[in-house]
Amino acid sequence: MGVQQDHHDILETLQIDPEFLVQQEHRPTLKYNDYKTAVGQHHVVPVIDLSPLTSKKKKEKKSSSGLESSSALTQQEHDAHSFIHNLVEQVGKACEEWGFFQVINHGVSLSLLEELETNAQSFFALPLQEKAKVRRTFENSLGYYDRERTKNVRDWKEVFDFATSGMLQLPADVGSEGKQLISHTNQWPENPSTLREVCENWSKAVEGLAFELLGLISQSLGLPATYFHKFWEPDDSNFIRMNYYPKCPMPNLTLGVTRHKDAGCLTVLVQDEVGGLQVRCKNGEWIGIRPQRDAFVVNVGDLFQVWSNDRYKSVEHRVVVNENKPRFSFPLFFNPSPRTNVAPLPELLLCGDQVPLYRPYNWGEFMKTKKGTPPIL
Ligand code: OGA
Ligand code: NI
C-alpha cells in the first residue's frame, strides 16, 4: 500500500494520470533496448527469409508476359517448389513454437516505409486540438485516439487507425449477430496533406504481404494456400494502426501497451529502430524483439488459435517505453469479414481426431464489444 501510494505521489508531481500506473506484478522487468533474457541467453524470435516467395511472384509475372519459354522453367519450377515447401515448414514451426516470427525480403519497399514514418512523425507532432479534429468518436471507431486502455490500464501512446478498404463495418448492436452492420469510415487530417495517399499505398503493399503469409500459414496446417481467403470476402475488417509512443519519464511504472494477445487473425507490424516490443516465451520469460530495419514482425492472433484448435497459440506481448526516445510502430491487424463465424476448423479436427476446444462466435460481434465501446474523451 505504502509503495503504491509513493508512486501516486511521484505521478502527481510529474502530473501523470494515475490511470497509467501498471500493477506491480505486471511492470516491465526488462528495459526497452535489452534483448537478452534474464539468464543472459539470446533467445531470438525466428527470422524467415521470404525471397523464395518474392522471386516466385516475379517469375509468374515474367512468364505471364511471355518473356520466358515454358520449357526453360521446369527445373526452376521444381526448385521453387522445394523452396516454398521449406518456407511453409519454417512458418509452421515458428507459429507452433513461438506464435511470433520476423520476415525479411518481403517485397515491401523501404521508401514506402520512409514516407510513412515521415508523415506519421508530422501528424503526431501536431497540437492536440489539430489531432482531435479526426478523433475517434462513439459513432466512428477510426481516427486519432490517445486514451486507449489495455486490461483497464491506460497505454502510454497515441494512435491513428484507418481501415485498408476505407471503412470498417461493425454490428449496430451487440446481440444482432452481425446482421446489421454500420460503416465506420476513415477520417483523414488536413495535415500532413500527403498522409492519406501514403497510408493508402502502404496499406496495399502490406495487405498483399499479409495474404501471402496467410497462404503460407494455411499450407503449414495442411490446407490449400487460398483456404482462408473466403473469410476476407465480400469484405474484411483489416485496419492499420499508427502507434506513437512518446518519451516517458516513468518507464518502470507504465507500459506503451500492457501485456495482451491480439484478438484477430494475423498482425503484420513494422517497428522503428528504438525497441520496446517484448514477447512472453513459453517458459514465462519476456524477451525483446530486436528491431531490424528490413523486417516485419508477424504474430498469429486469437482467431488462429481457435481455427487451429490450439495448434497455433496467440502469444502475449507488450510494449515497454523509455525516457530517451519516442517510438513508432505500424501494425496491420489482418482480420476477416465481420460476418465470419469463427470455430475450430472441421478439416483440422478430422485429421487430428480432436474435440473442438472453442464454441463458435461471431467476429463482428466480438469486435463490437471491444472496439465499439464508448471512447473515454
Ligand atoms: C499492438 C501491439 C506492438 C508495438 O498494438 O497490439 O502489440 O510494437 N503493438 O507497437
Ligand atoms: Ni498486440
UniProtKB/TrEMBL annotation:
Residue intervals of the Fe2OG dioxygenase domain: 236-336
InterPro entries assigned to the protein according to its UniProt record, in alphabetical order: DIOX_N, IPNS-like_FE2OG_OXY, IPNS-like_sf, Iron_ascorbate_oxido_reductase, Oxoglu/Fe-dep_dioxygenase_dom
Keywords: Iron, Metal-binding, Oxidoreductase
Tagged with keyword Iron: yes
Organism domain of life: Eukaryota
Any Pfam family hit: DIOX_N
Region listing for Disordered, in residue ranges: 55-74
Keyword hit for Metal-binding: yes
Cited Gene3D superfamilies: B-lactam Antibiotic, Isopenicillin N Synthase, Chain (2.60.120.330)
UniProt family annotation: Belongs to the iron/ascorbate-dependent oxidoreductase family.
Cross-referenced PANTHER family: 2-OXOGLUTARATE (2OG) AND FE(II)-DEPENDENT OXYGENASE SUPERFAMILY PROTEIN-RELATED
Protein name: Fe2OG dioxygenase domain-containing protein
